[in-house]
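Support request from a user on the community tier.

User writes: "When I paste my structure tokens into the form, the page sometimes reloads and wipes my input. The last time it worked, I copied everything first. Here is what I submitted, just in case something in the input itself triggers the reload:"
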């Protein structure tokens, strides 16, 4: 019973922290005044860096999944913590870019436009869902609760993978088309 109460408290804190992070992101992107053009900061490296960080996260997720399937918990842990680190670094870089640069408008036309917005909107919606799932999955792994951890991880992994891969696709469609 004591563990159940501790788990509920931790999950509640994770949900509160996730809501605060997501609220800040929402404010930063949609309500904050657009930064003044002509900033002395050169942020052109951040979008490709963000794509690379998403790619690295996806790669670590794949290797982490393969490792646990082979029973290699040590490698699984290293890969999943690396994926978490790359996702965290992405978030910091993404926040930095949007704080100083603002949004970049999609310029594509024709059939690619609705495809881009479908990918972008699904990416954004699932990002909101996956943040608390990632933190909860990590919490149960860190506390050694390997009864609940794999159950949540089965949901978290494909969503996290989708977010990482579509993050790369959004970059490619936004900057490389």
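"...and here is what came back when it finally went through:"
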């Amino acid at each position: 019973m004591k563990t159940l109460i501790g788990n509920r408290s931790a999950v509640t804190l994770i949900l509160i922290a996730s809501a605060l992070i997501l609220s800040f992101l929402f404010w930063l992107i949609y309500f904050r005044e657009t930064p003044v053009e002509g900033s002395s900061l050169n942020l052109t490296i951040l979008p490709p860096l963000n794509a690379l960080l998403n790619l690295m996260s996806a790669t670590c997720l794949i290797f982490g999944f393969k490792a646990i399937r082979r029973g290699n918990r040590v490698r699984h842990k290293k890969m999943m913590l690396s994926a978490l680190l790359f996702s965290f670094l992405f978030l910091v870089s993404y926040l930095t870019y949007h704080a100083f640069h603002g949004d970049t408008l999609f310029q594509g036309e024709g059939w690619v436009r609705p495809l881009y917005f479908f990918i972008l909107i699904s990416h954004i919606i699932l990002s909101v869902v996956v943040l608390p799932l990632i933190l909860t999955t990590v919490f149960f792994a860190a506390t050694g609760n390997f009864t609940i951890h794999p159950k949540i991880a089965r949901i978290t992994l494909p969503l996290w993978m989708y977010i990482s891969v579509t993050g790369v696709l959004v970059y490619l469609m936004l900057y490389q088309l």
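Agent notes: The reload is a front-end session timeout and is unrelated to the input. DSSP finds five helices and no strands in the chain. The domain at 2-176 is CATH 1.20.120.80 (Four Helix Bundle (Hemerythrin (Met), subunit A)). Escalated to web team.
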